[in-house]
Write a structure and sequence with these properties.
Largest interface: A-B, 38 and 30 residues
Helix content of chain A: 25-40%
Distance between the termini of chain B: 56 Å
Order of helices and strands of chain A: EEEHEEHHHHEHEHEEHHEE
Shape of chain B: globular
Oligomer: heterodimer
Number of strands of chain A: 11
Low-confidence stretches of chain A: none
Radius of gyration of chain B: 20 Å
Low-confidence stretches of chain B: 280-289
Order of helices and strands of chain B: HHHHHHHHHH
Strand content of chain B: under 5%
Distance between the termini of chain A: 39 Å
């Protein structure tokens, strides 16, 4: 049996003993792409944080690359939401991407040629090699998100988790991010991304997990992003269109 | 112009400031990026009762120990209080600050030499720095710089992106404690020379002023150190000239801090100018999205 990148069996996650999301059951293989879909406040970020070992697993078992989440950190990458970062922070794009190499570098060893090469390659991959010397905060929201993606790539993770990677991102950057994510998964990196954009989920994911306080459905987009499960997850915000498609109002 | 510093006590004062400049440049960069100005202010106030107790128990040597104990204790308490998240950072810090400072004032007011003691604790005695004090400052400076060099990478990652740093396996709580203790050590190193009140300027102003000139971390630290050195030299000279030539009593530590703040004010327009120069160059593409 091959190693699953992520296996959640009857998992409840939360903080300080209080569950935020319950009953999550899913398995993600190498190179597969999972979208966590649900309204704001549904607990998508909490599920991601639990896979990183930063939120409590209150029930069930979570296995990341055959390890506990905390022990798998050296093999997982994380792309946080750009909006939480201080745009005034005096740090260059190259320095941000180099943070992805810190785990290899340890506490104080200076960066070597391999580290610098990994940084340049990662920036090249997201199409921002020419911005390496710029201050991070001077880039657009979409470009910052690509820099954070480059930082995660520079660490060469086997499982990559992205928290709302398309929030406030322009079309050019969204296209670049989607292209890189497809390449990564083709190379065998498993992906977990949270989104409330159904079109993105349908386009990008092999597997969709609908979440709102609990797991409502899990499966291929064709089975999960349909009227029944969406209405369960979103309640009255989900509206049927005549042609069988769904739209969400005020998700 | 060099003449005043040929006088031994002036030379020692300048040496002491130079040692403090070495640590205050880099440390203030962390204060700046972590937005710990208020925490630094609190640390300087909470060291105060330790200073008083130490002085009463063992004179100038006791003062050092008292400051050290109070500083490290506060660093621990502040880290724990702000971690528990029951209080907002500001409220927790303010409670600790005011409580400890009042204890200090009560303790010092019980002494007969109340006024002169209070002045010395609050504003320091830069001109009476002894060779032994310089040696102690040098040891503390070395400890602080080594700790900063060891933890700098992790501390900077945590400052920029706490969620990303935690996901990468860094222990945020320990890093916060690390930095708070470093701040406390700077306060302890500087307290006898510049006093508990003025030391806060050395922790905040260097990086804040350097930020006007550069938006790179290492140059910020270097420029910050340079600014403290320049302020130390010119401040000492100013207080020397004022008191000897014009008979105006100008406390030397206050003069140094005044020069540092002056540098900040003078550099302010530079930041505005840099910002405007940049906005002029920005293409609409970079402002969108």
């Amino acid at each position: 049996m091959t190693t699953a990148a992520l296996r959640l069996a009857g998992v409840s996650v939360g903080y300080s003993g209080t569950p935020v999301v319950t009953g999550v059951d899913l398995e993600l293989g190498a190179g597969q792409r999972l979208a966590l879909v649900g309204p704001n406040g549904a607990g998508k970020s909490t599920v991601i944080r639990s896979v990183l070992g930063l939120a409590q697993i209150l029930d069930g078992t979570a296995t990341v690359l055959d390890r506990t989440p905390a022990r798998a950190r050296a093999l997982t990458g994380y792309v946080p939401q750009t909006g939480n970062l201080d745009p005034d922070f005096p740090v260059s794009v190259r320095q941000v991407v180099m943070m992805g190499r810190y785990r290899q570098l340890g506490w104080w060893r200076p960066a070597r040629a391999t580290d610098r090469r990994a940084v340049t390659e990662a920036l090249d991959r997201v199409g921002l090699a020419d911005r390496a010397g710029h201050r991070f905060g001077l880039l657009s929201g979409g470009q910052r998100q690509r820099v954070l993606l480059a930082r995660a790539i520079a660490a060469q993770p086997r499982l990559l988790l992205l928290d709302e990677p398309f929030n406030g991102v322009d079309a050019v950057s969204q296209e670049a991010i989607v292209r890189v994510l497809r390449e990564l998964s083709a190379d065998g990196t498993a992906l977990v991304l949270s989104t409330h954009d159904l079109a993105v989920a349908r386009d990008l994911a092999d597997l969709v997990c609908l979440i709102n306080g609990r797991q409502w459905a899990v499966g291929p987009p064709g089975e999960t992003l349909t009227a029944g499960p969406l209405r369960q997850t979103y309640g009255s915000s989900a509206i049927d269109l005549a042609d069988g498609r769904m739209v969400l109002v005020d998700p | 112009m060099i003449e005043p510093f040929a006088v031994p006590f002036m030379g020692r004062a300048l040496t002491e400031i130079a040692l403090l400049a070495l640590v205050c440049g880099p440390v203030s960069v962390f204060v700046f990026v972590r937005r710990l100005s208020f925490v630094s202010d609190a640390l300087t106030h909470t060291v105060f009762p330790g200073v008083v107790v130490g002085f009463v128990a063992g004179g100038m040597d006791g003062l050092f120990t008292g400051a050290l104990v109070a500083g490290v204790l506060t660093a621990v308490v502040l880290t724990v209080l702000t971690r528990s998240a029951r209080l907002t950072d500001d409220a927790a810090t303010a409670v600790v600050l005011t409580a400890m400072f009042s204890i200090g004032v009560i303790l010092v007011s019980r002494r007969t030499s109340y006024t002169s003691d209070l002045t010395a604790f609050l504003f320091g005695r830069l001109l009476t720095v002894t060779p032994r004090q310089i040696a102690e400052t040098a040891v503390l400076a070395a400890v602080i710089l080594v700790a900063l060099a060891l933890g700098g990478r992790a501390l900077m990652f945590r400052a920029f992106d706490p969620a990303g740093a935690a996901a990468a396996g860094l222990r945020i709580g320990w890093l916060d404690l690390w930095l708070n203790i470093l701040l406390a050590l700077v306060v302890v190193a500087a307290v006898r020379a510049v006093g508990t009140i003025l030391v806060v300027a050395l922790l905040i102003v260097p990086a804040a002023a350097a930020r006007m000139v550069t938006d790179r971390l290492v140059p910020m630290a270097v420029i910050g150190t340079g600014l403290v050195l320049a302020a130390g030299y010119s401040g000492l000279l100013l207080s020397w000239t004022a008191s000897l030539r014009y008979g105006i009593a100008l406390t030397s530590a206050s003069a140094v801090v005044l020069m540092l703040v002056l540098a900040y004010v003078l550099l302010l327009p530079l930041r505005r100018w840099r910002d405007r120069a940049f906005t002029g160059r920005t293409s609409p593409h970079e402002l969108v999205g």
